[in-house]
Automatic annotation (TrEMBL):
This is Phosphoribosyl-ATP pyrophosphatase. The gene is hisE. GO terms for cellular component: cytoplasm. Its EC number is 3.6.1.31. It comes from Natrialba chahannaoensis JCM 10990. It comes from the Archaea. Pathway: Amino-acid biosynthesis; L-histidine biosynthesis; L-histidine from 5-phospho-alpha-D-ribose 1-diphosphate: step 2/9.
Length: 94
């Protein structure tokens, strides 16, 4: 899991740097309202996750959770934070 998140974060960082035209991730970094778009997605997906959980729909829970994790990593990158900032915080709670 750690590797998957590290690899996804590295791809997001690459998209931020290289801004390929056909990349949804790059569009979030180039769009004027990119940060608002990410925050809106996080809100929508959290609501969808709650509904999936209430329905005990495991496939939908995994789908919405993945959307949330992806947009969360984009947000960290937008704030010029590192994935280690999240890991450090989680480990500090252990
Ligand atoms: N993990 C993701 C990822 N998760 C979600 N999304 C996008 O986030 C958007 C979510 O918007 P929506 O909620 O409206 O879409 P939806 O989930 O189909 O819609 P709902 O039915 O849930 O409302 C979609 O355009 C998804 O394609 C992602 N886009 C890219 N990645 C990864 O990011 C990396 C870079 O990809 P590019 O952005 O293509 O360069 C690659 O590793 C990709 O796999």
């Amino acid at each position: 899991m750690d590797d998957t998140l590290d690899e996804l974060f590295a791809v997001i960082e690459d998209r931020k740097e290289t801004l390929p035209e056909d990349s949804y991730t790059a569009s979030l970094f180039t769009h004027d309202k990119g940060e608002n778009a990410v925050l809106e997605k996080l809100g929508e997906e959290t609501t969808e996750l709650i509904l999936a959980a209430k329905d005990d729909d495991e496939e939908e829970i995994a789908y919405e959770a993945a959307d949330i994790v992806y947009h969360l990593l984009v947000l960290l990158s937008m704030k010029d934070m590192e994935i280690e900032d999240l890991e450090t915080e989680l480990e500090a709670r252990g």
